[in-house]
């Protein structure tokens, strides 16, 4: 607990000082605000290419904790504009959702040289009510994550990036309606990025203690934030959008071992499990079609690195402007074998904008 308080205080102090420097830079032009410098540079060089790092579903074991340290060193050895972890800080069962878990994760994110974004995973909160995870209150754990990781409008990491935050009290916490502060948005160059709190385990509609009210509130908030993001992207004349969440929502009938099965035309789930994704996917499809430019949908959850185009329209025609990107994730039987990350090269001048390269970490 002392370590967590120290880490949170250090982050508060750095953000507080950064804000003071930003304010001073308005009247004293010879002072430079680190965060605004990133934005200013992007405006001046909007078409300049850059690289980002994607990872998630890690670590799930002590061996993988060692692998994550190597992964962070590998990311730090490259000049990344920012990184994003798409959720799941631990294994889904037989691992406690105690405060030490989040303190350790905060340490990982703040060890990254580049700004570090994060979106929660089901193992971090919805599954914390499982007896093997300590039988915690899921909403209380999400409230705590909001406090630890999302208490400011800045990213994590040694360098920090200003982010837009969904501040309307649309989500639920232990004591009622709260802002969905984990939902973030930022634009670098001519590309807009957004995180969305979308969860595995049926998006909190199944497992140990389903919570339909929590799901309904958060799902509506996610849809609103996603629609607003595409509107903002059009206003900013963004050439592409990247969405990052935890859950693999399932896109078709192809992979029952790793994702829900659904009719790719109607997007109705067909495997008789509660469906926490259909309404979001229907709206996403409309937005992707209307946007007409490259869209990347990044997720974890099913622990299988892949890049493909699984999304169809209502007539069965492939949406060629959407690319699904699933990050590497836990395979405990392989030790650190799957403790890897994806480097994304972003070039606003190119036709597809995003190109992807798996990064196999030396030693893992």
Explain what this protein looks like in three dimensions.
The protein is an alpha/beta fold and 364 residues long. The protein has two domains: 6-36; 45-359, Purple Acid Phosphatase, chain A, domain 2. Helix content is 33%, strand content 20%. The chain contains eight helices and twelve strands. The strands form two sheets. The chain has a seven-stranded mixed β-sheet. It has a five-stranded mixed β-sheet with strand order 3-2-1-11-12, with no helix packed on it. A hairpin with a 2-residue loop joins strand 4 (164-173) and strand 5. Helix 7 (212-235) packs parallel to helix 8 (278-291). It starts with a helix and ends in a 5-residue tail after the last strand. 45% of the residues are buried.
Q: How many domains make up the 3D coordinates?
A: 2
Structural class: alpha/beta
Low-confidence stretches: 12-42
Which architecture of the largest domain does the CATH hierarchy give at level 2?
4-Layer Sandwich
Please estimate the helix content. 25-40%
**CATH class membership of the largest domain:** Alpha Beta
Task: Give a quick precis of the structure.
This protein has 364 residues and is an alpha/beta fold. 33% of the residues lie in helices and 20% in strands. It contains 8 helices and 12 strands.
List the helices and strands and how they pair.
Layout: H1 2-27, H2 34-44, E1 50-55, H3 62-76, E2 82-85, H4 99-110, E3 116-118, H5 138-149, E4 164-173, E5 176-188, E6 191-195, H6 200-204, H7 212-235, E7 240-244, H8 278-291, E8 295-299, E9 306-308, E10 322-326, E11 341-346, E12 354-359
Parallel strand pairs: 1-2, 2-3, 6-7, 7-8, 8-10
Antiparallel strand pairs: 1-11, 4-5, 5-6, 9-10, 11-12
